[in-house]
Amino acid sequence: MSAELQQIRNWILKRNPERQDIAGDLDLIENRLIDSLSFVEFVFLLEQVSGRSIDMESLEVDHLRTLNIIEARFLGVAVH
Which of 11, 56, 68, 75 fits a 20 to 30 Å CA distance from 25? Predict the structure, then answer.
């Protein structure tokens, strides 16, 4: 796991202390690990970690659904 993805995972775990770990394919939205109150803060974290700006107008919820998708889409790691 990349250091960047570990930062993202740690951020989510800090806000969900009942969880010990997050599988790469776990749906973060359906499992309410990222909710509407933390969404903007999460996108800001992604911008910081990835080093690039994220256009909120073109961002779709499916872009943030799992850690695997986030890693592929924002951190430039291919998902197999």
Answer: 56
Per-residue pLDDT tens digits for 56-80? 899 999 999 999 999 999 998 544 4
pLDDT at residue 19, as a whole number: 96
Q: Among residues 15, 20, 48, 46, which one has the least CA distance to residue 32?
A: 15
- Cα–Cα distance measured from residue 18 to residue 43, given in angstroms and rounded to the nearest whole number: 22
The angle subtended at Cα 3 by Cα 39 and Cα 16, nearest 5°, is 40
Buried b (16+ CB within 10 A) or exposed e, 40-78: eebbeebeebbeeebeeeeeeeeebbbbbbbbebbbeee
**Mind listing the domains of the chain with CATH numbers?**
3-74 (1.10.1200.10)
Do 75 and 5 contact (CB within 8 A), yes or no? yes
